Amino acid sequence: MPSFNRPIYLDYAATTPVDPRVVQAMVPWLAEHFGNPASNTHAWGWEAEEAVEQARSHVAALIGAQARDVVWTSGATESNNLAITGAALAYQDKGRHLITLKTEHKAVLDTMRALEQQGFAVTFLDVQPNGLVDLSALQAAMRPDTILVSVMAVNNEIGVVHDSAAIGQLCRQQGVLFHVDAAQATGKVALDVQAMQVDLMSLASHKTYGPKGIGALYVRRQPRVRLQAQMHGGGHERGLRSGTLPTHQIVGMGEAFRLAQLEMAHDNAHARQLQQQVLAGLADVPGVVLNGDATQRVPHNLNFSFAGIEGEALMTRVSDTVALSSGSACTSASIEPSHVLQALGRSHPLAHSSLRISYGRFSTEADIAQALACIRSAVLALQAISPLAVPAGLGFVGR
Ligand SMILES: *Cc1c(COP(=O)(O)O)cnc(C)c1O
């Protein structure tokens, strides 16, 4: 294995560490209890099935659902594909129009684009400069042939929290299915598929201290939501997702979600404390801008742009000390600013100079202090040699 000096981990929005309690819960199901949960002729299968069903009830409890409405998948990417493509194909006789936001995760956007190739019409809605959906624009985009609206609960790049309950109410009034990608929301905001009138909700384990490669889709039964399966095989998971269930992964996600419910208040209080520390530590940096609404956000994710500098140069300077994400993604030929920051209307240079700092359960004040010192000195050094003027006192305008 290659060895790297490992920087302070402040990239929780990309994936969280697996909670040691989760690891401990998983190991027996990987080691001695290896039975196939679909084996119904012997105790090896029965005990695995029981563990799977207990985990299903933990996942359901976190979102106010019934256990039988939860379908295991390989993660939120697969859940988004199953929810959107599955509903589009099942309801295409009713209509062939879908609505989403320009700031959704690629797993939603690319699924929508694939449907366009199959003759569906998709509206990709702009967001407001604070990153939040405009409900009147959403309502105006609805057509008689609209079958599904997909709006995430919490944005992965900038941490803003959409008003899922208001969107759900609007969709229910119009008779349109409402899908929520909640990968970044579990354990951070209270979720209730009944109160929010959500029909389909995508969940991921590894953004909430569980293992990678396991997720779930909530599929409403009353009123019943029909889906066309995307994976064909043994008819597992009510025929919606065939494939042998990975008991150890499922047990891990179940334990992670059980802990998330127990510890949400504590985790959020801790994140709010770190958020204050980050905001205080960067507030006087010239030309700093907070991306996304200043208050309607989770406290775990702060995305800043720094006027006058290049994000890539900044990343080069800090990456030995602190693990962060930038708001740019290298495509084959060029570095493109993130589609989310562009949708906020950030100028190209500001969209190019962004950093996402995300933290959580295992982050400490000492981690943040060390990271802040490094980021501050890197930004100031780059601004000092920058040919671009740095506007003084741009300050923290979260819009
Ligand atoms: C991480 C993430 C996904 C993808 O989830 P996987 O489980 O990694 O497939 C989808 N949507 C959002 C908002 C995410 O943050």
UniProtKB/TrEMBL annotation:
One of its GO terms (molecular function) is metal ion binding. Keywords: 2Fe-2S, Iron, Iron-sulfur, Metal-binding, Pyridoxal phosphate, Transferase. Its EC number is 2.8.1.7. InterPro entries: Aminotrans_V_dom, Aminotrans_V_PyrdxlP_BS, Cysteine_dSase, PyrdxlP-dep_Trfase, PyrdxlP-dep_Trfase_major, PyrdxlP-dep_Trfase_small. Residues 8-369 form the Aminotransferase class V domain. The keyword NAD does not apply. The keyword Acetylation does not apply. It is an enzyme of class 2 (transferase). It catalyses: (sulfur carrier)-H + L-cysteine = (sulfur carrier)-SH + L-alanine. Its cofactor is pyridoxal 5'-phosphate. It holds the Pfam family Aminotran_5. PANTHER family: CYSTEINE DESULFURASE, CYSTEINE DESULFURYLASE FAMILY MEMBER. Belongs to the class-V pyridoxal-phosphate-dependent aminotransferase family. NifS/IscS subfamily. This is cysteine desulfurase.
